[in-house]
Amino acid sequence: MKVDIFNFDLPEDRIANEPANPRDSAKLLHIKSETNENKTIKDLPDLLKKGDILVFNNTKVIPARIYGKRGDANIEATLLKQLDLSTWKCLIKNARRLKINDEVIFSNDFKATVLQKDEDGPVTLKFNVSGSDLFAQLHLNGIMPLPPYIKRKKGGKESDKANYQTIFAKHEGAVAAPTAGLHFTEELLQKFNDMGIQQEFLTLHVGGGTFLPVKVDDTENHKMHAEFGIITQDVANRLNEAKKQGRRIIPVGTTALRLLESATDENGILHPFEQETSIFITPGYRFRFADVLFTNFHLPQSTLFMLVCAFAGIERMKNAYTHAIENKYRFFSYGDACLIEKNDG
């Protein structure tokens, strides 16, 4: 399928540089089969019903952008993908100045050695600390790895440490936020509890590849980045039982949806999962587990926009995005959200 099918014009002033405050004051577009309805996140309980299950991603973003020196050269590194306890693939500004075996110094006791430079851009760094000690150094020296379309001065903003993290973030390892989850507040979660709307949690450590552009002309030739995910046996059991009862499964975000679909077999049974997934969902895919999707608005020609087009239909999503642009919805990580009913046709 040609990638340019998934293109659309987005005015730059529709890209959100700051989140809605409070979180649940953001706009919400309810995308149904025939209509698009303007709502807010606070209206979400009215759009759900007793018995629905919201599935959240409880990964926690680490301060994965760090600044260092190789000799006199300034180096900016953003961790992309963990290879082992001390080794990460990274996006590097000024990567041309780095050679194999070069040492990059981030602080007196936080350094890394260049192990490899890939043709497609990433550089593999081996740090002098590992595991929880590496994460501790990132918290001392790093900033939140906001995507490049959010404008920030070097060093970031203090408020992003809280704003770019969901309130249920638990397991460290993501280098990008599961941004649909940023809209939820404690009050909203309590309202769901009161209504009998169940909440379940899985973990997908979102990788930096989520921001990498699709560089090919045809989706058949795109190599999807891999991310590590976990669904426990208990969660799988509860969700399978709910599915049997005909209750709606509503992943919050494309990360939760991709992990659910990765762990579901051809018969629609969800299995425990603890491995990497590189699932790439495009139109024509038959969804096995998700019934409704809550997600943000995504970049043109991105794998995430392809996914929502697979879920709801290309023309339906393009019409919805046109409606959102005309009605001044805010796009991308700090932007507004939509609730999408699946196109079962």
Computed over alpha carbons, the radius of gyration is 20 Å
Give the number of helices. Answer: 8
Strand content: 25-35%
Q: Helical content, roughly?
A: 10-25%
- Number of DSSP strand runs: 17
Alpha-beta content class: alpha+beta
Strand order of the largest sheet: 5-6-7-10-9-8
Uncertain ranges: none
The mean pLDDT is 95
Question: H/E order of the elements?
Answer: EEHEEEEEEEEHHEHEEHEHEEHHE
Please summarize the sheet with the most strands: 6 strands, antiparallel
What does the overall shape look like? globular
Q: How far apart are the first and last residues' alpha carbons, in Å?
A: 19 Å
Structure, explained:
The chain has 345 residues and is of the alpha+beta class. It is built from eight helices and 17 strands. The protein has helices spanning 44-47, 131-141, 160-163, 186-195, 233-244, 254-262, 303-312, 314-326; strands at 27-31, 36-40, 53-57, 59-61, 65-70, 73-84, 87-93, 103-107, 110-117, 123-127, 171-174, 198-204, 227-231, 249-251, 273-277, 292-296, 337-341. The strands form four sheets. It has a six-stranded antiparallel sheet with strand order 5-6-7-10-9-8, with helices on one face. A five-stranded mixed sheet has the order 14-3-12-13-15. α7 packs across α8. The longest helix has 13 residues, at 314-326. The model has no long low-confidence stretch (mean pLDDT 95).
SSE blueprint:
Layout: E1 27-31, E2 36-40, H1 44-47, E3 53-57, E4 59-61, E5 65-70, E6 73-84, E7 87-93, E8 103-107, E9 110-117, E10 123-127, H2 131-141, H3 160-163, E11 171-174, H4 186-195, E12 198-204, E13 227-231, H5 233-244, E14 249-251, H6 254-262, E15 273-277, E16 292-296, H7 303-312, H8 314-326, E17 337-341
Parallel strand pairs: 1-17, 3-12, 3-14, 4-11
Antiparallel strand pairs: 1-2, 5-6, 6-7, 7-10, 8-9, 9-10, 12-13, 13-15, 16-17
Helix pairs in contact: 7-8
